[in-house]
Amino acid sequence: MRHAWPTLAALAAIGAGVDALASAGAPLGRAAQRALRRPALRPSAARMMPLPIVYPARGFTAAESSAAAEVSTLLGDESAPKYVVVSADDPIGLVASELSQAGRGASAIVQDGGIVVGIFTERDYLKALSCASDNPAEECIVPTDDMTLQTVELFATPVRAFVTPAAELITVEPSCTIVSALRLMGARGIRHLPVIKPGASPARLDVASLVGVLSIGALADWVQRDSEMLQSRFIDRLSEMNPRFRSQPGGSGQVGMLAAIGVLFATAIVLFTEQTWITAHWQLVMVGSFVLGYVGIIFEELFDLNKGAVGLLMATLMWAVYIEFSGMGDRAFLEEQLSQHLAEVSDICFFLLAASTIVEVVDAHQGFRALTDRLQVSSKSTLFWLVGVLTFFLSAILNNLTVTIVMVSLMRKLLDSDDERKLFGAMIVIAANAGGVWTPIGDVTTTMLWMNGQLSTAHTITDLFACSLVSLIASMAVLQLSVEPSPQLAAGVPPPPPALAAPKKPAPSSAGLVLGVGVGALLSVPVFVEKTGLPPFMGMLTGLGALWVVTDALHAEEQKEELQVPAALSKLDTSGILFFLGVLMAIGALDASGLLKQLAVALSNAFPSDEVVAAIIGVASALIDNVPLVAATMGMYDMAQYPQDAQLWQLIAYCAGTGGSILVIGSASGVALMGLESVDFIWYLKKASFAAAVGYAAGIAAYLGQGALFSHVLSAS
């Protein structure tokens, strides 16, 4: 949430002083460690955070929060940091006692004759504990175990010997904004900032001109409270911007959902009471059920319906109508068709279940970090192409949705600009969809065609690799025109991590082994199929079983349940797998009824060219889910006419896979990008759709050119 950035920025700027002590050398470091045992002067955990980096607040909420609020607002708060005024000749022991009573973040303004000579804080106290001479800058005593730092002489020393001199003080006026104060404190490595009256001279400052003293801990606390207040204000603002949702308690989506359910329920009752009419028009009822279900899938956000539920209802209704009212055979024959289609669909569902679980287990072990941590480049253009090529090849062996999530998450750690992350994210979607086309396990549509026998492993890789690569290069060449050079990357300095990036957890020691077993399991599936002749889902289940045994053996004694397969299974998108089941079973009903054959004949008559039919399917996949599209084409065309690895099947695999990149809603990867980086339909249409369309057309041309070249070579030989 962007309105929480000021809070994160403040917390990221806390603790520069303690880190400076740790790096100042062994003598001072040991003294500081002993001094920190004094509870009254021990910095809190929140104030010991490293990386004094400050990020500005963004969004309309910033104008109402810390970005615009003046420091005078904080000084007037009850929780404002306290300060005490002491004489320059007061002993350190007395001043330290007053600071302890004043509370966390307190400081002492040291004056001599009404003129400020410096400031004394807990950092200066630590210096006093580690240095015993009156001139600590020249002589420091190295404490040993049999020495005590808290001697009578030290506590009797005048505080003026250890103050931060007035000449070195950095001051601000009450009109300074809180965010500007945070930036200043982070840049200068200071933890206290005196606030003086307008017009007062910092060079000769009297006590009467002092308004207050800011501490970085108090700033962080204030911004935290401010952010929490803005959360409720942000929700109220959203409600004001959408008054129609307030006028309808359930929201327009829920009202539309209830209305749609009511209409469908009433229609179902009427239809099933009019069995004679259904018997005469059963094909129309099946097509109508499919269209209505598909509308529900496309507009699931509008109706507040999960597409998995719609898919299951659509499938059961269509099969019920077909078996009960079609009259295309006896009941035993029709139920046999149902069992046959269920077996085929279950193969795909079990394949996806096993593959997704393997990837989830590898990700839980942070196995992918071995790849992402090596992306250290000095040029943004180099990073752009490196990420694109890496995504292309990763999605060929892993699920392209998972690769998209991993790579987009990586960009959030490398790029701070919203627009840059969106542009790189669009490129990742295009690269993932293109990379998933040319292997049987890369994209779900290619997997469906491969498992159903329309494609073979060897020909899919050799025939579709070139056109997929051409598609990627063409799209990235167009997108690169929008990539702006970064001064930080150009200078070879990695950009600071965004404030929203969570700190890395250490990867388990078994990460490399799990990555090797997981990727090996995925890559061995085609080999398993070739050697055993068993269905591909059996190979994937075998790989999952092997990985399950390995992880159980690795973590049996550690009891790390989150790294084992049962935990991965609980994280899977089960509704997505049930959606595949419902949609594919609905397509199976259309196939069994012969309706898909009729559609194939109509398309062939309208478009005699296989290339045109495949291209139309690809463009349609930008608007319609490519899973049912490909499932429909699998039943539309007979393999007796179009055998395995025919040009039609390969073009459908390419077009359905890459065509979904033309619009952000056309693929699961695009939908994931919408959720991860808040990319909306219009932004993607303006910034990335043209590049995706150029790559789509270039890939088709490359495939046809490759086929023509091979044909010419064969005829010549």
From TrEMBL:
PROSITE patterns: CBS
Keywords: Antiport, CBS domain, Ion transport, Membrane, Signal, Sodium, Sodium transport, Transmembrane, Transmembrane helix, Transport
Entry GO terms, CC: membrane
Source taxon at top rank: Eukaryota
Principal subcellular localization: membrane
InterPro entries for this protein: CBS_dom, CBS_dom_sf, Cit_transptr-like_dom, NhaD-like
Pfam families: CBS (PF00571), CitMHS (PF03600)
Keyword Signal: yes
Alphabetized GO MF terms: antiporter activity
Record's keyword annotation contains Lipoprotein: no
CBS domain location: 79-138, 163-229
SMART domains with a match to the protein in the record: CBS
PANTHER family reported for this sequence: SODIUM/PROTON ANTIPORTER 1-RELATED, SODIUM_PROTON ANTIPORTER 1-RELATED
Protein name: CBS domain-containing protein
Native organism: Diacronema lutheri
